[in-house]
Amino acid sequence: MKSHAQAVVIGGGVVGCSVLYHLTKAGWKDVVLLERDQLTCGSTWHAAGGFHALNGDPNVAKLQDYTVKLYDELEKISGETCGLHLTGGIALADTPERLEWLKMSHARGKYLGMETEMISMKEAKELLPLMDEKHFVGAMWDPIEGHLDPYGTTNAYAKAAKIGGAEIELKCKVEELNWDDTKGVWNIVTSKGTMTAEHVVNAGGLWAREVGRMVGVELPVLAMEHHYLLTEAMPEVAAINESTGKEIIHFIDFAAEVYSRQERDGMLLGTYERAATPWSPKDTPWDFAQELLEPNLDRIAPSLEMAFEHFPAFENAGIRRTVNGPFTFAPDGNPLVGPVRGIPNYWSACAVMAGFSQGGGVGLVLSEWMVNGDPGHDVWGMDVSRFGPWATRDYTNAKVRENYSRRFRIRFPNEELEAARPGQTTSLYDTHLTNGAVMGDSWGLETPLWYAPKDVEAKDVFSFHRSTDFEHVKAEVMNCRENVGYSEISNFAKYEITGPGAREWLSEIMTNFIPKQGRLALTSMTNENGKIIGDFTIACAGAEHFGPKAGEERFQMWGSSAAQIYHMRWFEAHLPKDGSVTIRNLNLELTGITIAGPNAQKVLAKLTDEDVSNEGFKFMDYREHPIAGVPAKTNRISYTGDLGYEIWVKPEYLSKLHAAIVEAGEEFGIKPFGMRALLAMRLEKHFGTWFKEFRPIYTPFEAGLDRFVSKKKNTFIGRDAVFAHKDNPPLTRICLGVSGATDADCIGDEPIYLGDEVIGWTTSGGYGHYVGESLATGYIPTDRLEEAREQGVVVEIIGEMCAAHIQHEPPFDPEGKRMRGDFS
């Protein structure tokens, strides 16, 4: 075994071998893979080996498409066969709602360049004679589906990596990982001795938790038992093969929650049963290798019974073999990829449950991240940083079981899943429920979505169409726009930045100027490639007056709750080495309420004896002062786009603040509004949001954030790349009025057509209740903008082509007068 390597990959499954190969492809030759037993041990060897390009997250779908297309390259480089069977496949819908979901998936695939097709049941029956079509209402054909040989594919990755210069050590168990800060290397203690490396990749698969614990991290990953059956020879299969000259295609039956494909002269039939069963939920035994678990046919019987009804040939087929093996999931079913915050050069490549669909893409982005400092793709949906400290082992167990049992079920856009909830709550939680709130999960925190009147059940009816909350959200919006409303905003991310170098550091990492004392600034943050990795509100809170820090400026900052770990990882990686800057994630150490609407100023005036008039407390001012008798930090700003204030207090004061606001606002008709009303109002103002409009695939000039990029600053991270797009950005973010929408609105990822050509995509949408129209925001190429404005565009919503027009300015208060208190 070598004594040193630039990078060590731990784990010899398909993901570990993919990472190894891609590191060599990216230029790192001094790389080693350590496997405690043999390649494919754990989950890879018993996998069903299916692959497909379709995914609910379009950015993950792109990486799955890359993975599938990679296999030909691997075979050519390695000389090994992957055992490819590119049969194509169909997804079968048994209800109108499932058919709508397929239509939305098909539409999404259009702007991704995928070749899916909605087909009739007559066409589906011709493609899949095994089925009884009376049980289904529609289907989608995907030509990029198939299966392969898990062992051959893993060895193709491994051999290609060796050809690229990598080494593989088998029967080499990693026992300890110790970081040497002085030398900047990992000391990797193994059963064959100790070696050092600058980088370590955790591709431990079933043992990902154990490899995480070696560095003090409890990764949110859990192994689940998973069954599939291999039938004996079926005469129906032989007859179809003979008549078509082809293998039987892959298929998914959403109703039965099964997937199937041909295996030799029979069929493979697998299920994600609702009786989801974790395997070894706390510790994975190190002596587990190429072993299977005891089958439990009773547990999967409900799925099998429905499958036999839908595909009668299975009912008379004998079972050649039953496979029950463990494989790993994260709480949301997506991989855990990227650098782990706070641990130098320690990388995650775990929870890749669809290894033969995603393994190549995971290897690609992780290798680019390690070699070039950036993944080169939008990997937010897979980033290990998307989970916070609330993702404990109990949380992970509950959410993984929920996710597994729902694998083939629909997740509606207004559906909040219940497992592991409530988790975090503020002191207003019971008050919200008493007021009729329907709650949602915002990065682990219970947050009001909308409020049901006293005579209405506080419950969502799940749908892709406008649902039961529509009129009630409208009432919340109208009251806020016409009177005054309030909403808890404790779910926002909050940071405090201090130290003698705080201003200079913020100026270096943010695109906009840093405000003077008592003022706010809105700014984006970009990476070295000029792509957006955050958007923030920053307040200069003033200088310390006493003690050793006297004279030092102090800053408060707000951002997206879901990106707190993502952003802290970036902040900490870019802090000055001299300790001149300290940043602290306040999380729920600071809670808040926003008040907004024409009467917001009047309400605030009743809560303080200070001057909060337009002249005394200007738009974009920041003040630390008592509100309702409690210490508060107040921003004169509002995400509603209306006259508004954000009032921030320590959690012990939140209930008192809330009671005082409600009392002060009673004469002005104050009522609460939830997150859905807030998001509807931000659409009316064409405000963007992280993960939707602002992602690391767009520059500020593309995203319409150019007014938050200082032209006078000579330097900030990514400045040259940002200004390269100043005059002619490749894409432009647009505001759409969707006049053709009737009972459903855009939710994001709908294709935008100019004539018959797909030229762009939506990022989010909804109904603008105050302006009275369906709205969406999205991106199209800049060089098509004028043509699209003149001709109008079409947006595909659940298979329906809806006329839309590009708006030159936000439909609500385009001049921004109301935010400044001007209602003339």
Automatic annotation (TrEMBL):
Entries under InterPro entries matching the protein: FAD-dep_OxRdtase, FAD/NAD-bd_sf, FAO_M, GcvT/YgfZ/DmdA, GcvT/YgfZ_C, GcvT_C, GCVT_N, TrmE/GcvT-like
Domain Aminomethyltransferase C-terminal, first and last residues per copy: 744-813
Domain (GCVT N-terminal) ranges: 428-713
Domain FAD dependent oxidoreductase, residue spans: 7-369
Regions that span the bilayer: none
Domain of life: Bacteria
Keyword Thylakoid: no
Record domain FAD dependent oxidoreductase central: where: 372-425
SUPFAM superfamilies documented for this protein: Aminomethyltransferase beta-barrel domain, FAD-linked reductases, C-terminal domain, FAD/NAD(P)-binding domain, Folate-binding domain
Keywords for this protein: Oxidoreductase
Stated family: Belongs to the GcvT family.
PANTHER family named in the record: AMINOMETHYLTRANSFERASE (PTHR43757), AMINOMETHYLTRANSFERASE, MITOCHONDRIAL (PTHR43757:SF2)
Protein name (database record): FAD-dependent oxidoreductase
